[in-house]
Specification:
Structural class: mainly beta
Strand content: 35-45%
Helix content: under 10%
Number of strands: 29
Number of helices: 2
Distance between the termini: 36 Å
Amino acid sequence: MSTIRFCLLLVIGLGLAVAGARPAANSEATTGVAPEFQYIGKLAFGPEGVLFAADAQEVSITALHLGDEMTGGTPGTRDVPAIDRQIAGLLGIDAGNLLITDMVVDPRTRNTWLSVMRGLGAGAVPVLLRVDGAGEIEVVSLDEVRYTRIGVPNPPPAETPLVLAGGREIPIANYPDQVDPAGLIGVQTITHMAYIDGNLFVSGLSNEEFASKMRVIPYPFRVADAGTSVEIYHGSHGQLETFSPVFTFVPYEIDGEPSIVASYLCTPLVKFPIAALEPGSKIQGTTIAEFGNRNRPIDMIVYEKDGQDYILLSNNQRGVMKVPTEPFAAADAIADPIPDTAGVPFETIESLDGVRQLDRLDASRAMLLVDAAGGGLNLEAVALP
């Protein structure tokens, strides 16, 4: 199978007519108590104990107003070995029927939050969990939680299939927002979220001709617009791309300009100015690195070490990469085919292997969801390299 075909399997079916698109939830904000989810996926923390949670099935984002009473566990996060088995036992299922969809650290308490699906397929149940500094795993009840919810406009078609690297198709209803350890690649309606200066930034796909979107949604939620179409030059593929979504991103100031640094499938690193993200517009990011094909980025964090800023980027095939940010401003744009890697330098951290989820725990440590030596997953804090 060619590299281009491998990396673009996730966009099979995106040429379907707009008439085939599934309806999104209301793009005007609604409020209530005790929110329900069909599929809980990506998470991001906002201001004052607000946790944003994406529902990839309903194609909506819910701001959970947790408050101090629900974020007051023992500060920090203690390592938890075999956390997938412990969560499965807590939920009364086998670990093989558990799907962990995301992990984030609360910047106030340093507790770690996980979104999971109890079971697989149509009967799966969304669950939100918290792990605190004592290592206690708590199932978070949403029965009395106030929330605000907003739909994401123009989602991609529900019938767009999932596919394996070998080409076998699986209905998207079974795994609407997940690339699992077996290699499933799905349509990514909401791939990543980050709260930045009063706005929730949301990457993903739409049903439009230029499918890759970055949406900037003011918070508190009122209305979600159609977002900005984001195009990139992909050196590994030797072409411009409008279908491939941003998989993970971070805000970062480059040469005095507030910017987004984003990573895509197969694995270009791209920068674009936040000021260019106007609703309904189309922009082309500047590709400043190619980190290798046949690879999917997972998570990205920014940290400081010995007076220098770095990005730590986890991937499903090429390990965890440490990328210095100092070259970003002067980096030449990649605009020609690249056989493997090029652009800003990076270092692969050999000691960080099998990382499934990554977030910054504090100024000196990262929190990892990582493959355990005997199988399963561990929750571990490690020193930032």
